[in-house]
Design brief:
Elements: H1 8-30, E1 33-41, E2 49-55, H2 65-74, H3 78-96, E3 101-106, H4 108-112, H5 117-127, E4 135-139, H6 148-160, E5 164-170, H7 177-183, E6 187-190, H8 192-195, H9 202-218, E7 221-224, H10 230-238, E8 243-244
Parallel strand pairs: 2-3, 3-4, 4-5, 5-6, 6-7, 7-8
Antiparallel strand pairs: 1-2, 1-8
Helix pairs in contact: 2-3
């Protein structure tokens, strides 16, 4: 019986995949660093909070978080990377002893898998000397929430301790009014697409005005993301935005 031979190209592809997986595993273990961007209430010079971001090794192709997560999806390591990312951000923020709050990015799927995911998150917060009330959990809208009511139920114990919830990139991705109603976030972040050039765009102004009205009805705070121009900031204020973040104020710290 003849043996089936694998194509050399397939063998090379497998080798590349293995090397990519090993390299990503190394980065997940010890190659992540954290950066923070301040979030300012309108009319205040002191930040209310900072949002944490991760970076891969400086100068590496995976330094950019988008490329990091893209590689993680290709190697089935998204959950491991997301957990490592929030642990890195928490550890760095905890060491800063900063008096404000932390917006902590996390993917909805990370909170469902494994079953004790929320308990692990709380343990990671406490381990670095923080309290859940110092953390605002930020859910990205680039990933669907499979069951908003179930997610809210999972997080209720942390909400009882003072943790708050933020919905990121509102107006893009999988966001809809039902998700806003079911999750009842404390903070609504307006996607940067609607903030950019809003000063000259009546349609974007209408969208932001509508989101501000919805947030007001819900008792939520609105944050304009990606503010880069002074005239856009001024328009956002006129439209009723509560807080802002972006390169106009500070890139990262």
């Amino acid at each position: 019986m003849s043996k089936t031979r694998r194509s050399p190209n397939v063998a090379v592809a497998d080798l590349v995949s293995v090397r990519r997986s090993r390299r990503l595993a190394e980065i997940v273990r010890s190659g992540l660093s954290s950066r923070f961007q301040p979030i300012y209430p309108v009319g205040h010079a002191t930040p209310f909070a900072v949002e944490g971001f991760i970076r891969g090794p400086v100068g590496n192709a995976l330094e950019c978080p988008d490329k990091l997560f893209q590689s993680a999806r290709m190697t089935d390591m998204t959950l491991a990377l997301d957990e490592a990312a929030y642990r890195s951000v928490l550890a760095t923020f905890g060491a800063m002893r900063w008096p404000g709050k932390l917006f902590l990015n996390i993917r909805p799927s990370t909170l469902f898998i494994p079953p004790d995911a929320v308990q692990k998150l709380r343990a990671a917060i406490v381990q670095v000397g923080l309290h859940p009330s110092q953390v605002i959990l930020e859910l990205t809208e680039q990933e669907p929430v499979p069951d908003a009511a179930a997610l809210r139920g999972l997080l209720d114990p942390l909400f009882d301790e003072g943790m708050e919830l933020s919905l990121d990139d509102v107006g893009s991705g999988y966001a809809n009014m039902r998700l806003l109603c079911e999750l009842k976030p404390h903070f609504i972040k307006v996607d940067k697409f609607f903030v950019a050039e809003v000063a000259e765009n009546p349609t974007k102004q209408s969208v932001i005005r509508s989101l501000v009205n919805i947030a007001c009805e819900m008792g939520a705070t609105t944050i304009a993301e990606g503010v880069e121009r002074q005239n856009d900031a001024e328009m956002a204020i006129r439209l009723g935005i509560d807080m802002m973040q972006g390169h106009l104020f500070a890139s990262t710290i």
